[in-house]
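# step 3/5: fold
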Amino acid sequence: MLKAGIIGLPNVGKSTLFNALTKSRKAEAANYPFCTIDPNVGVVQVPDERLAPLAELAGTSTIIPAAIEMVDIAGLVGGASKG
């Protein structure tokens, strides 16, 4: 499974983007820095209209769409890597 992390500076909309991509309200999104402390994880299925015709051609009824695991990571602070 493909994995993707959403990272960035505090209070820029990472949790809002996570909620939109996962079609959930799993991540708290508020208007103050460091609202997200623990990572939020969600799995998103990737729709592909080619799968049904391929399954019919192959003679199977099983269709397994691709999925992406999205991780909403706490905000990064500028200069933190320098100690």
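# step 4/5: annotate
The first helix runs from residue 14 to 22.
# step 5/5: archive (pending)
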